[in-house]
From TrEMBL:
A molecular function (GO) term: porin activity
Domain of life: Bacteria
Organism: Methylobacterium gossipiicola
Family: Belongs to the OprB family.
InterPro entries named in the record: Carb-sel_porin_OprB (IPR007049), OprB_Porin (IPR052932), OprB_sf (IPR038673)
UniProt protein name: Porin, OprB family
One record GO biological process: carbohydrate transport
GO cellular component, one term: membrane
């Protein structure tokens, strides 16, 4: 019972000042910090002590199953504190948590209503140095169960969800099964196995401070313009990160694209490549400083992706006519690509020994080849960790982004309007999504994040024959995160 009380201690979670020896900066997995500062994810520690994230900000690149969940905002911690894991003391550590997201649109959309979606996560990480004496080796396993409904599908009508946790098949599946090897004093980091691209590339712990799928787990543009693989749908893949200096890295990967794994009922246990249509290859060159060498750490990156796989033509069938009218199905195309630039930067940190402060981030993306439905994507956001006296782990965040649709992306709407004798001059060319939220650290194990979202010009690409634009939507949401081992007193959490 004492352990349970420790896990539920609200006052301790908020009123105890952060221990400078444990305080982490803007949260990142170990793979983004400079090699001289990198530490093994699985520490020799007592079971109740949380494994703290390295004291460095960064662009993600999950170094464990636990960090994958953390980077995707699926743990009960703010962006500055790592989730508590249950260290078994033998090289194995466990993380189990539940994430639920509710949303309702009292105004706007096709019709009003509400929806709820959730995920149960179990992760296992093994340090092979401790288990078998294999220096730099580790393995990672994650299993997820997703369930619920999507408000965007059911009520709003647009194609970008306001509940990030929805998607990838509402089922139980093996989401991660990988082997990782670090070499040359951790200057080279390689991972192979059943992977997803979006926990290694184009992410940041700041993005999933938000519930909107336009920002979390990755900028939505990459999914609209490529077959970028996403959590929880794993496929064969590999990626490697090389540190060129203690601040500059190059990261590249390759991932199987297999639409069969996205079918309803897929459980992630089919390792065959039957059905694969190609591969996607993301890459990034980045600059990253840490709390050790920078009072206000910063991260800048340029990168892109080459998608050498099949995709459906947005307009035409195989005969070159509009598939919207022929009903023959879209023509199959091959190959797309895109580029991006992004940053995050801590701009205010009142106490240089603590993780509290204000960070800003931004993303710009553009397609470079293929028949793409969007021209570009722009995003800006900010997250403040530590809000009021006695609330060091509460956060307040705001993000806004815009998706600029291409002429191909709007072609079906315009064709449908013309067929009905209607004009298409009022078809919006941009969808703007924004979110304001406040994260409440209720206890070390429980975090609740109420949020307000607004969608300006919800796209109607799923409803091209709708005679008028979908009304702007106002969304009220709430996210619940529970770290179950912390709740049971077996792992640490914020303030412990």
């Amino acid at each position: 019972m004492a352990g349970l009380a420790l896990g539920l201690g609200t006052a301790q979670a908020q009123d105890t000042p952060p221990d400078p020896a444990r305080a982490a900066g803007i949260a990142v997995p170990a793979t983004v910090q400079r090699p001289a500062l990198r530490r093994a994810v699985l520490r020799r520690s007592v079971a109740r002590r949380p494994v703290r994230r390295p004291a460095a900000p960064g662009f993600g690149g999950a170094d464990s199953a636990a960090q994958a969940a953390d980077t995707l905002g699926q743990t009960a911690t703010p962006p500055t504190v790592a989730a508590g894991v249950y260290d078994l003391g033998n090289g194995l550590s466990l993380l189990m948590n539940y994430t639920g997201q509710a949303a309702a649109n009292p105004v706007g959309g096709i019709r009003q209503g509400s929806a709820y979606a959730g995920q149960l996560f179990f992760g296992l990480d093994g340090d092979l140095n401790r288990i078998a004496g294999l220096q730099g080796g580790s393995f990672h396993v994650a299993v997820t169960n997703r369930h619920g409904r999507n408000l965007a599908d059911d009520r709003i009508g647009n194609n970008t969800s306001v509940q990030e946790i929805f998607g990838g098949g509402q089922t139980t599946r093996l989401t991660l099964l990988s082997y990782q090897q670090k070499l040359f004093d951790d200057r080279v980091d390689i991972e192979v196995g059943r992977l997803v691209a979006n926990i290694a590339f184009l992410n940041s712990p700041l993005y999933c401070n938000f519930q909107s799928n336009s920002a979390c787990g990755n900028p939505t543009f990459v999914f609209k313009t490529s077959n970028f693989t996403f959590w929880p749908v794993s496929s064969w893949g590999a990626h490697a990160k090389a540190w060129l200096t203690d601040r500059v890295f190059f990261h590249a990967g390759i991932y199987e694209v297999n639409p069969r794994h996205q079918q309803p009922g897929d459980n992630g246990l089919d390792f065959a490549t039957k059905g694969a249509t190609g591969a996607i290859m993301p890459f990034e060159l980045g600059y990253s400083t840490t709390f050790t060498n920078d009072v206000l750490p910063r991260n800048y990156g340029i990168g892109g992706y080459v998608d050498r796989s099949d995709y459906a033509d947005p307009v035409l069938d195989a005969t070159g006519r509009a598939a919207l009218f022929t009903g023959a199905g879209a023509a199959t195309r091959f190959g797309r690509s895109g580029v991006y630039a992004r940053f995050d930067q801590m701009v205010w940190r009142p106490d240089p020994t603590a993780p509290q402060g204000l960070s800003v981030f931004g993303v710009a993306m553009k397609g470079t080849s293929g028949r793409q439905i969007e021209d570009y994507f722009l995003e800006l956001g900010a997250v403040q960790t530590g809000t009021f006296a006695g609330r060091p782990y509460d956060t307040v965040g705001f993000v806004i982004n815009t998706q600029k649709f291409s002429s191909l992306g709007l072609a079906n709407i315009r064709l449908a309007r013309a067929a009905q004798g209607l004009g298409s001059g009022d078809v919006p060319t941009q969808q703007v999504m924004m979110e304001l939220n406040y994260g409440i650290q209720v206890t070390p194990a429980i975090r609740v994040t109420p949020n307000l979202q607004y969608i300006l010009n919800p796209d109607q690409t799923r409803f091209p024959f709708r005679p008028k634009a979908i009304p702007d939507a106002f969304v009220v949401g709430a996210k619940l995160s529970v770290d179950l081992f912390t709740l049971a007193g077996l792992a640490g959490g914020p303030g412990l």
